[in-house]
Amino acid sequence: MHSSAHSPETIAIHAGRTIDPTTGAVAPPLVLSTTYLRAVDYSDTESYIYSRYRNPNRLSLEECLLALEQGVEPSGRAYTFASGLAATMTMFQALRPGDHIVIPKEMYFGVRAQLHEVFVPWGLRVESVDMTDLDAVRSAIQTDTKLVWVESPSNPTVKLTDLQAVAELAHAVGAVVVCDNTWCPLLQTPLTLGCDVVMYSTTKYFGGHSDILSGALIFKEHSTYSERVLRLQEVGGAVCAPYDAWMLLRSIATLPVRMRAHCANALAIAHALENHPALSAVHYPGLVANPFHDLAQKQMNSLPGVVKHGYGGMMSIEVKPTAMLTALHAAQKVAGQTKIFARATSLGGVESLIEHRKSAEGVNSTTPEGLLRLSIGIESAEDLIADLLQALAAVE
Ligand SMILES: Cc1ncc(COP(=O)(O)O)c(C=O)c1O
Question: Which of 17, 38, 52, 105 is an active site residue?
């Protein structure tokens, strides 16, 4: 058993789990049945009926996510989805055509694409703003703004938003604040900083092994918004599958240990690359010279441990052009030379990944040409540093 007084390490292993009363199994059973026996008078509407509505593995996972997200009220709610973008889709569908929302200029490009390709034609009024500039945020929020979306650290240049300050501005007009916290679960708990909802692509650190696609929305408290999201999930159907939910609960048991290892490796790598002659920038909030370092210390501090603050496992580096190569070609060359870092998209797995982000984002990308995004895994930091240094030698 766990209680909210326990630390994340204990909650991650015990929340949502019970010893199976039928067999005594310690590891939770996987329930694949889509349908369940009903009461003779069909009065059992709160029990298991059909797996689009409810499934034991999904409910266990949701209980665990809720417990991990410190700061949820007793009436908090967690819902899990078939992917991170299925979660965002449901969140936006719960608004009405004509509603006004504010989003960051820099955010995961898939969420922006979803808004512009689906929800702007549907009638949402979407305004992009530099979330690091509080005056700009204040001007962008209208008296009828319904939702403010934040992503901190942001994708791909690892900028931080002051979550508490933005939440205050949004709440002044009654807007709901949603934080995409995909990059730093456990390290930062947005509900304790004033946000109303946390969104995750649980495909990333929660899954942790690059083999589960899923997403989550965690509401600080039960509201008409959370009710509507649940109903949309029931009638829309983009639920987290039982096997994925079972796999996620298993992976979450090691999440605190993995997050510490990601953070320690990333900090060591950022220090090793900070003054590298082939690089024009290393974007990582753990570096003292980083413009977001103080804010990171203030709001990324929920999992004290190996490193005092958890600055996360994500960073980006910018490769300089050479006499022979543009920044774009120099960066692609570096990504082509690594032996441990795999040239692939996504993040949050145990294995390190490197990605030329502009190539991945496509023609509308505003990402700097020489930028490589690094998802730092939990291999040996020395091996990872050696791999990056030998790759960078190709453009020195
Ligand atoms: C910050 C962020 N939000 C949302 C998503 C979308 O999640 P999914 O790929 O699980 O749909 C991603 C995926 O890369 C992401 O990095």
Answer: 52
> Is 204 annotated in the active site?
yes
CATH number of 8-252: 3.40.640.10
pLDDT(305) > 90: no
Mean pLDDT over the full length of the chain: 96
Q: Residue 54: is its pLDDT beyond 70?
A: yes
Q: Where are the domains of the chain?
A: 8-252, 255-395
- How far is it, in rounded angstroms, from Cα 108 to Cα 127? 15
17 is catalytic: no
Q: Given the residues 58, 99, 108, 225, select the one marked as catalytic.
A: 108
Q: Under CATH, which number does the domain 255-395 receive?
A: 3.90.1150.10
Cα 64 to the center of its chain, rounded Å: 16
Within 8 A by CB and 6+ apart from 325, the residues are: 333, 395
Query: Rounded to an integer, what distance in angstroms lies between the CA atom of residue 196 and that of residue 189?
Result: 11
Q: Tens digits of per-residue pLDDT, 214-232?
A: 999 999 999 999 999 999 9
